[in-house]
């Protein structure tokens, strides 16, 4: 009876014991599919209707030529008949660069957002209207045409006294649905029989796990060819309905492997450490020395009945050196990220101190991780 009771207790504990969940993600969140990509577009145009905050036309030659060329296409000639020069003034026009991202499979007639950025000496694009601007791809073809009223969150205000207030970036604006797609990218997904899947974060282990998950679900039809690419054969039953196959594939869960890496941002004092970072046995001490210099000049008055009749300023400096007591922490071999953070926090180290400490530990060869400075 006692033995049976012990067996029942152990079995019950195993049932109610919490099982640590293994973090998994969907394949669609860590990969991109061959051919399914965005396309960058760029164009040059004019923004008109500004309230005196545009380019100085008389000093910006490309704004002059762009305005003259546009008016000539509309049947208006503003060039001097004798020498062909352009005599324009005013600040209601601005030359701008227009950029846009054309999503994959954008069809003829769909709208996309565009960004507008001043190219000359314009101060503010608020209230302006972008004129018809062709947007070109990397091959030089026109894929979209942009036009519309620009919108910016920034502003620029000047006073006659010289005071100035600037909020945000008033020389950069957006036009929501400001461009219409005129040409589609020639890519037919339905005709593909093979496809490559690209990992957003290349890794051998993750690529192999993706291939194993696909093969377990659909059969032996994928293979990891390198840390970035998983080659895939489209199953026969899905070749007429590739969208359904990719939908099922995207929802598969895998456990991505995370390399041991520490990211350091010196400028902002930010440190990001992966959970696989490990430390060998090492002792760390942290202390600081504060040097304070005070300048206290004194005035020396001349003695009576002397030839020197003027007061003299004498320099007096006071230097104080204060050394804080250092603290020593011993980090045991193979400690985890949490142990490392707790140990460094126990020293009272600031983010800047943490950066120096981590670099010193890496230089001592006691940290098993890559350190990347951005």
From TrEMBL:
**Top-level taxon of origin:** Bacteria
Keyword set includes Signal: yes
Q: Which Pfam families match?
A: FlgI
- The record's principal subcellular location, in a coarse class, is other
List this protein's GO terms for biological process.
bacterial-type flagellum-dependent cell motility
Q: Which GO terms describe its cellular component?
A: bacterial-type flagellum basal body, distal rod, P ring; outer membrane-bounded periplasmic space
> Signal peptide: which range, if any?
1-21
**ATP-binding as a keyword?**
no
TM ranges: none
- Which molecular-function annotation in GO is an example for this chain? structural molecule activity
Q: Where in the cell is it found?
A: Bacterial flagellum basal body
Its annotated function is as follows:
Assembles around the rod to form the L-ring and probably protects the motor/basal body from shearing forces during rotation.
Q: What protein is this chain from?
A: Flagellar P-ring protein
* Species this protein is from: Candidatus Odyssella acanthamoebae
Provide the gene name from the record: flgI
